[in-house]
Amino acid sequence: MAETAKSGATPLEGDGKRILVILGSPKHDSLCHALCEAFSQGARRQDHVVRHLRLGDLAFDPVLHGGYDQNQTLEPDLLEAQRQIHWAEHLVFVYPVWWGGLPALLKGFFDRVFLPGFAFKFRGRSQAWDKLLSGRTADLLVTLDTPRWYFRWIYGAPAHRQMVRTILGFCGIRTRRLVEFSPVRISSEEQRQGWLRKAELLGSRV
């Protein structure tokens, strides 16, 4: 289920920002999970209110079977996810790049949750649309096995373009920071600890 009461958020929200950290990896024991915790620790230290949404814990069908041609009932966890996204001022997506793109679970989450009427709305039969999630910002913490330069200049960074432009930007969410942690497969324990410190620092500078 989406975390609310057990998210670590304080009952009384003060002047800090409302932050929703979304873990887009289905793995429970991973570098992405550790980055989520480190970022959250840094943010809470600055009195921000942090909630977590771990997609691997949610019960939902990630396949949008009929596209937008027919309604597909949202599972309770996805309805709660929409409420959490509406609550948040700042979203943090933490996920790995697999096969140059988003994990299927994260892409399925967007397919099911970022629906017309929630994330965007077309204006009649025109090409114009309203960005219904405008006013929110996002950080992307992304792990890769591919070296950063190779992913950008040889592959063209397809996962980054998809997230920043065609998903978040399309719905009005402005990406503030995209931070890569790479290459993971050959990284040392010392490097990983350094990445966790970096994630904590990012959280303290929302």
TrEMBL record:
GO cellular component terms, semicolon-separated: cytosol
Stretches assigned to the Flavodoxin-like fold domain: 17-192
Domain of life: Bacteria
Keywords: Oxidoreductase
Entry keyword annotation includes Oxidoreductase: yes
Matches recorded under Pfam families: Flavodoxin_2 (PF02525)
GO MF, any single term: NAD(P)H dehydrogenase (quinone) activity
InterPro entries xref list: Flavodoxin_fold (IPR003680), Flavoprotein-like_sf (IPR029039), NAD(P)H_dehydrogenase_qn (IPR051545)
PANTHER family xrefs: NAD P H OXIDOREDUCTASE-RELATED, NAD(P)H DEHYDROGENASE [QUINONE] 1 ISOFORM 1
Entry's family note: Belongs to the NAD(P)H dehydrogenase (quinone) family.
Name of the protein this chain belongs to: Putative NADPH-quinone reductase (Modulator of drug activity B)
Organism: Pseudomonas indica
